[in-house]
Structures are given as structure tokens and as C-alpha cells.
Amino acid sequence: MYHSISDTARDRDAVTPAMFAAQMEYLANSNFEVVALADACRLLNTGGDLRRKIVLTFDDGYRDFLNALPVLDAHRFPATLFVVTGCIGQTAHWHSTDKSRPLLTRDQLQAERAAGIALGSHSVTHPDLTALDESALAAELEMAHATMRDFGETFFPFAYPGGRFTSRERAAVKRAGYDCAVIVGGRWGNGAETDCLLLKREPMMASDTLAWFKKRVNGYYELYYLGARMRGINTR
């Protein structure tokens, strides 16, 4: 799970272009298979082999996603970009520190689709879905779904804004016709027991070194997490 691919200082979610390139180079050279989110869901639903499979997702639709595109293209890596459909070409009003952060335009999104990037819904306005009444919740989900159809998408994933959801929001996502939905965090990856409307993702952050990235994609983080919890240490 990525957000910003930029050298933006003081943004905990901004992975530098150089670090992102190094991470993708490691995946390419380490017998990992980067697969599309739609293909991963099909494997989950049919009991397929998920070993060493990686899915790449990018939340919010920041314009600096353009920094990632050449790297993805060079490795022929698929990815899903979750778009706030009512704010296309505007700025990220929900950002905690920089509400002027520019978002991709419609023309840019169409060009990225042509380059093989899949688009997913991140709602219409990036609200806290848990704070909405039933009517507003349905509108956020259904209108964003319609925009994805207008772009020509045929597989419809959803990313819960801010990672906030309850069983009510999950049920609403299902009613709105989404094929899967992704959350923030979670342990042990995804497997046959995973709810496709609650797919776990591991956030990539500015503080992550390449060594730490390698440990996380190879499963060492789970061992670290268990050890830390046994010692009473809180970890993200």
C-alpha cells in the first residue's frame, strides 16, 4: 500500500522515487511475482497458489504517482490506483498536513489506464464512512462505482478512506456491487480464509529502509511482531 511517491519532507506516507525504484528492483530480482489485484482475488476465490505473490496499490490519486509509472512500466508490474472520484484534478482536501497536494487529472488517469494501470474507487469525497448516514454512505459508494464504469473498468475494487469501516460499511460496499475491498494493515497476508471485502495491506512509509522492506515482504516482520508482542512492545 502506497500513497505519495515523492521527496516531500515531513510526510510519513511519502516514499521517495529512489526508494520506490529500489523496492521494485528488489521484487523483480527476488523471485516475487507482482500480480494484478483482480488476478489475486481470482486466486483467493479459487484456492490458487498465492506464494510469493505481491499486489501493488496506491491510494488517493496523487499527481506524484507519475513518479512511479516509469518504474512500474520498466518492470511490467501491474498496479491499482484508488481514486477519489469527486476530486479528480483538484487537491487532497483530506490530507492532514498539505491540503494543496495536487491530484491526477482525468486525462492523466485515462493515460495511465492505457498504460495498464487499473483504477479503483476510494469514494467520492474521502469521508469517514462510519460517520455518514445510510443515504450518504450509499451515494459515496454508488457514485464512485459509476465513475469507474465510465472509465471503462470491469473489475471494481474499493479502498476504505482512512482505513475506517465497520460491518455496516462492509455490507454497503457489497450492496454497491464492488468485487473486493482493501483495508489498512493486518497480519499474515491474505489467504483462503480472507474476506475479499477486507483484504489486508501493508502500508509503505517514508521511514522504511530497503532492508526493512526486504524483511517485510519476506515475512520476517510477522516474526518480529510476534516477538515484540511477547515482550510487551507495541508495533505498527
Summary of the model, kept short:
It is built from 8 helices and 9 strands. The protein has 236 residues and is α/β, with parallel strands linked by helices.
Written overview of the protein:
By secondary structure, the protein is an alpha/beta fold. Helix content is 36%, strand content 11%. Strands 5-6-7 form a 3-stranded parallel β-sheet. It has one domain (4-207): Alpha-Beta Barrel (TIM Barrel), CATH 3.20.20. The chain contains 8 helices and 9 strands.
Question: Biggest sheet, strands in spatial order?
Answer: 5-6-7
Low-confidence stretches: none
The global form is globular
Instruction: Determine the number of helices (DSSP H or I, runs of at least 4 residues).
Output: 8
Overall pLDDT score = 93
Q: How many separate structural domains?
A: 1
- Give the strand tally: 9
Structural class: alpha/beta
Rg is 17 Å
Task: Supply the CATH class.
Answer: Alpha Beta
Which architecture does the CATH hierarchy give at level 2?
Answer: Alpha-Beta Barrel
Portion of residues within helices:
25-40%
CATH fold name: TIM Barrel
